[in-house]
Specification:
Blueprint (H helix, E strand, L loop, with lengths): L8 H11 L4 H11 L2 H18 L4 H8 L3 H13 L3 H16 L2
Length: about 100
């Protein structure tokens, strides 16, 4: 886990702050204050790539839809296959929430 080098009180507090956000609007406002437009675009693109890889899309489909380079796709794929499994956790929870919402 690469982030272990940063672990500590400040990072814990930062994550607790993010977890305190309750609505999409609050997330928009916070990330608008925190990040540049390009930083947000980069995070969103990586998320899209991860979701598409998780759903077994091909590299060419991902390049076209997410406008991602093969280097970005490979980097995200490495995280999916050899990372902390956080994408899978998030996608499973999102599916669970969507399933609850459709009932």
């Amino acid at each position: 886990m690469l982030i272990e080098e940063l672990q500590g009180k400040s990072l814990d507090e930062f994550f607790k702050g993010i977890l305190s956000l309750e609505t999409i609007e609050e997330c928009y406002a916070f990330f608008d204050d925190l990040c540049t437009v390009n930083e947000i675009k980069t995070m969103v693109q990586r998320f899209q790539v991860a979701k598409m890889l998780y759903n077994h899309n091909t590299y060419s489909e991902i390049e076209a839809e997410a406008n991602a380079s093969t280097a970005t796709i490979s980097r995200v794929k490495r995280s999916l296959n050899h990372g902390n499994h956080s994408y899978e956790l998030m996608f499973a929870r999102m599916k669970e929430q969507a399933d609850k919402g459709s009932k």
